[in-house]
């Protein structure tokens, strides 16, 4: 089982490899604020509490095995299929959401698009002036209903950004599917969110 010091070491290693803090947040399934805290702690004395109130979700046991990933994605596809009849596109949120979305798209017989959120460029300060984007190597979202797939919901900002980006391209998000929801949301901006797991924090975590 990983502890905080393990996460600090992983954050340090990713930072040394040139990952932005936003990419580290994505890689470790934590908020941007937690990723920043972990990177800032690297090289300091071992963590003694006082960190951000976040929850780390490690789903590598699923992600590293294609058979397990297929089973989990099938369950996620089953949740999504209950919403929408004319959906022919699945949008994966880079990076971790894309393998899930690929398998979900196979299960639901849809095309595949991918979206890279602006947090991947984020280091410090405001994120508002940064831009995400759709990959030109995958399907276009214009005038299409779609599902959005990611691995975790931490604050809901990435899902909201992806919904906004799909709508800006003329698409219509019908539902979002995630492995784990750390916020406990049923919908984001009118789009229902389905999760296989919901993590509920009880108390302040002190």
UniProtKB/TrEMBL annotation:
GO terms for biological process: regulation of gene expression. InterPro entries: GcfR_halob, GfcR-like, PRTase-like, PRTase_dom. The keyword Transcription applies. GO terms for molecular function: DNA binding. It holds the Pfam family Pribosyltran. The keyword Ubl conjugation does not apply. Gene3D superfamilies: 3.40.50.2020. Residues 66-194 form the Phosphoribosyltransferase domain. Keywords: DNA-binding, Transcription, Transcription regulation. PANTHER family: OROTATE PHOSPHORIBOSYLTRANSFERASE, PYRE-LIKE PROTEIN. Contains an N-terminal DNA-binding winged helix-turn-helix domain and a C-terminal regulatory domain (or effector binding domain) resembling phosphoribosyltransferase (PRT) domain. NCBIfam families: PRK02277.1 (NF002620), transregGfcR_Halo (NF045507). HAMAP family: GfcR. DNA-binding transcriptional regulator that functions as a regulator of central sugar catabolic pathways. Belongs to the purine/pyrimidine phosphoribosyltransferase family. GfcR subfamily. This is Transcriptional regulator GfcR. It comes from Halolamina salina. The lineage of its organism: Archaea, Methanobacteriati, Methanobacteriota, Stenosarchaea group, Halobacteria.
